[in-house]
């Protein structure tokens, strides 16, 4: 489902909505008198184009047209959805929405991004009744799926259903707030956390670094896959009880009495199969933490640093060099229960990168403008390997003359050969993107290893072609 959306207000939230709708195929009209609107909108679109398609394994629809219009009437006339995202001032929102109702179509969905106001607050007087939904997103809107929906009791029949259909169609996860009133669930929880953080600062109990670390390295990865109720349910009664101890949240309103209603709600949060949910939690955490490790951010930063600190020296270069020694992560397995074929290439690519570091082609060298590019690869899958199994990659340098680097990787679990990867790389200039000789120190180190490995028996499988019979 696509259509025309009017975005009123192009702050951080507004341009996020515009990018989300546009990349999902909607025509977008943006109104904001701020002269910086065009630049802010184009910057957000560029970020969304880079990031959003990577969330999906199917192609996004053709991008919708995005235009900035000079008036509210031009924005909303004929629009299927109107999204108001101006600053959180009731007088400003009411004045704008009164203008909207003069020009929008009868069947249009009119929504506000408000985090504190109710639909009743925003409806206000006008020439004709206007039922406003609250559709409160998280930033960045083009990536985070949650949007909280609230409707007034007198909202037209089916308005929430249509809103959910539209929001689901643009990749969001709408959650209907069951109780009307001011303040979204996410906003209230965020505000409570922020208030307590400020009290910790004021009382000198924690620094901003410690507060951020508590969320980033602890609660954040857990809450990325399950909420606080399910987290406590899996952790057991002790965890829930611990949060009620004196000294915790002293400056927040008193905890409500643990009556039957709350007890039943918490009981309902517990999964039917706690063991299976715990395993799923661990799998999710590995994926989340490994993603953060890949970017070197948040809780992944210290994981990346630990790996660097534990890198082994190359050792005896007269033997194949161990370039990987690790276990198969949970997120490397496929529907057959063993390491998926793309991850064999991933492991061999890491082995190549490690070999490059050993010869001096590291980040510092690459920053000077030289590197090796892989031009041909051949992988043989010989045996299965499962999640948690330890494997190592032994690398033989078959050729290191001139611009060429010819490597043969062998993946083992103990003495069992799992796979081989043969890779041909050429040294290139990153400025011209053409082949070029490596720096003298790189050529010398690579030549030393290639010469030492020339004395080794030629590994079985070198030069194999697809479909070639063994022997």
What does this structure look like?
This protein has 471 residues and is of the alpha/beta class. The chain folds into three domains: 4-183, NAD(P)-binding Rossmann-like Domain (Rossmann fold, 3-Layer(aba) Sandwich), CATH 3.40.50.720; 206-250 and 259-308, no CATH class; 311-454, Roll (Thiol Ester Dehydrase, Chain A). 41% of the residues lie in helices and 19% in strands. The strands form two sheets. It has an eight-stranded mixed β-sheet with strand order 3-2-1-4-5-6-7-8, sandwiched between helices. Strands 9, 10, 11, 12, 13 and 14 form a six-stranded antiparallel β-sheet that branches. Helix 1 packs across helix 2. The longest helix has 22 residues, at 274-295. The protein is elongated and about 85 Å long.
How would you sum up the global shape? Answer: elongated
Oligomer: single chain
Number of domains: 3
Average pLDDT, all residues: 86
Could you give a short description of this structure?
With 471 residues, the chain is an alpha/beta fold. It contains 16 helices and 14 strands. It has an 8-stranded mixed β-sheet with strand order 3-2-1-4-5-6-7-8, sandwiched between helices. Strands 9, 10, 11, 12, 13 and 14 form a 6-stranded antiparallel β-sheet that branches.
Question: What would the keywords be for this entry?
Answer:
471 residues; alpha/beta; Rossmann fold; Thiol Ester Dehydrase, Chain A; 3 domains; 19% strand; elongated
Task: Describe how the helices and strands are arranged.
Elements: E1 4-8, H1 12-23, E2 27-31, H2 37-51, E3 66-68, H3 72-76, E4 81-84, H4 90-103, E5 109-112, H5 119-123, E6 132-137, E7 146-150, H6 159-169, E8 173-176, H7 185-202, H8 208-223, H9 228-235, H10 237-242, H11 260-269, H12 274-295, H13 300-310, E9 321-327, H14 341-358, H15 363-367, E10 370-381, E11 390-399, E12 404-413, E13 416-429, E14 434-435, H16 440-454
Parallel strand pairs: 1-2, 1-4, 2-3, 4-5, 5-6, 7-8
Antiparallel strand pairs: 6-7, 9-11, 10-13, 11-12, 12-13, 13-14
């Amino acid at each position: 489902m696509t259509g025309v959306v009017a975005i009123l207000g192009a702050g951080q939230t507004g341009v996020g909505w515009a990018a989300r709708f546009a990349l999902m195929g909607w025509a977008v009209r943006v109104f904001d008198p701020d002269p910086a609107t065009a630049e802010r909108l184009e910057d957000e679109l560029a970020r969304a184009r880079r990031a959003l398609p990577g969330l999906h394994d199917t192609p996004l629809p053709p991008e919708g047209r995005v235009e900035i219009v000079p008036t509210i009437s031009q924005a909303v006339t004929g629009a299927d959805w109107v999204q108001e995202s101006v600053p959180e001032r009731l007088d400003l929102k009411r004045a704008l929405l009164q203008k909207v109702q003069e020009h929008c179509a009868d069947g249009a969905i009119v929504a506000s991004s408000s985090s504190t106001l109710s639909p009743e607050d925003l409806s206000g007087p006008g020439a004709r009744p206007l039922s406003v939904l609250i559709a409160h997103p998280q930033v960045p809107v083009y990536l985070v799926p949650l949007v909280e929906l609230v409707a007034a009791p007198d909202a037209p029949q089916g308005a929430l259903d249509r809103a959910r259909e539209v929001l689901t169609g643009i990749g969001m996860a709408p959650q209907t707030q069951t109780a009307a009133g001011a303040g979204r669930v996410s906003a209230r929880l965020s505000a409570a956390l922020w208030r307590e953080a400020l009290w910790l600062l004021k009382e000198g109990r924690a620094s901003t670094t410690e507060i951020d670390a508590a969320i980033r390295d602890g609660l954040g990865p857990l809450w990325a896959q399950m909420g606080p109720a399910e987290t406590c349910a899996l952790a057991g009664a002790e965890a829930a009880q611990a949060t009620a101890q004196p000294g915790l949240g002293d400056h927040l309103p008193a905890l409500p009495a643990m009556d039957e209603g709350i007890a039943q709600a918490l009981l309902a949060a517990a999964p039917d199969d706690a063991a299976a949910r715990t395993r799923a939690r661990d799998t999710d955490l590995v994926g989340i933490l490994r993603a953060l490790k890949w970017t070197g951010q948040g809780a992944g930063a210290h994981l990346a640093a630990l790996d660097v600190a534990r890198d082994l020296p190359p050792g005896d270069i007269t033997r194949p060099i161990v370039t990987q020694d690790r276990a198969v992560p949970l997120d490397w397995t496929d529907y057959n229960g063993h390491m998926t074929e793309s991850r064999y290439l991933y492991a061999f690519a890491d082995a190549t990168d490690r070999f490059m570091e050993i010869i001096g082609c590291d980040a510092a060298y690459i920053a000077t403008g030289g590197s090796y590019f892989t031009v041909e690869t051949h992988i043989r899958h010989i045996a299965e390997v499962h999640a948690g199994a330890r494997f190592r990659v032994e690398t033989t340098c078959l050729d290191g003359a001139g611009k060429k680097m010819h490597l043969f990787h062998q993946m083992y679990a103990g003495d069992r050969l799992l796979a081989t990867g043969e890779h041909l790389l050429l040294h290139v200039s990153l400025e011209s993107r053409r082949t070029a000789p490596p720096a003298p120190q790189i050529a010398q180190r690579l030549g030393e290893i290639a010469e030492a490995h020339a004395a080794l028996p030629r590994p079985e499988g070198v030069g194999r072609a697809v479909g070639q019979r063994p022997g």
